[in-house]
Input
Amino acid sequence: MVVELPDSTLDRLFRALADPSRRDILRRTMTTSASVSALAADYEMSFAAVQKHVAVLESAGLVRKTAKGRERLVRADPAQLARARAVLAELETLWHARFSQLDAVLSPPKE
Amino acid sequence: MVVELPDSTLDRLFRALADPSRRDILRRTMTTSASVSALAADYEMSFAAVQKHVAVLESAGLVRKTAKGRERLVRADPAQLARARAVLAELETLWHARFSQLDAVLSPPKE
DNA sequence: GAGTTCTACAACCATCTGGTTGTACGTTAG
DNA sequence: CTAACGTACAACCAGATGGTTGTAGAACTC
Output
């Protein structure tokens, strides 16, 4: 159950999550899809700024945009989120192996 | 089981995770503690650069440094990692509530 | 004591980031 | 058709980030 993701993908993923506005947008679009302007209405920043945040989330694969008339509906996609969580879980797994280092000796490296 | 963390803490956490070198350092120090120079030996970058990465991990609470003679041993602390994972899990939970939006109707808005 | 090792920290630099404003264009409403 | 709305995108700016080199101090080694 080793998670194999290119570095750049993970970089963009965690980077995207490292901003409170983006986490909020993600939270909001988890349950409902919302247009960019609908999202932007609830923040202090400009529309363009929110647009950029959505773009960051989109390029990280955390969100998808679908055209509907003149507006673009944004909805979260939990797949990448699950991957990020798996990466963290895997790191934690290493910690648990900390005191049972016999395993490392008994199972020879495969590559 | 709501995760309550100040935004800035989460920012630093995910920010720290958004770099392959830092994730690697984290991985390495999960199982063993290593001095900064021992860590630095395995990367192309300068010692000072590695030192900075460790500092970022430390300020995110992902790593702790303990003095041992002239060297500082770095070891990972999985606590913050678990918190980050919990935040992601909570976000995913929202997704699952997506189709049971009756809840939103039944509980009137509080603000 | 002298030299080496490990670390800390400052200064500097290029690039990225998060924000802004302005312009342009497709879409909906009157 | 015209006006308003929703979006896209470029240009610009201040500050953060990731890297460098250089200097200095504390701790080992000899």
User: Anything to note?
Assistant: Chain B has a mean pLDDT of 89. The CA atoms of residues 10 and 84 of chain B lie 7 Å apart.
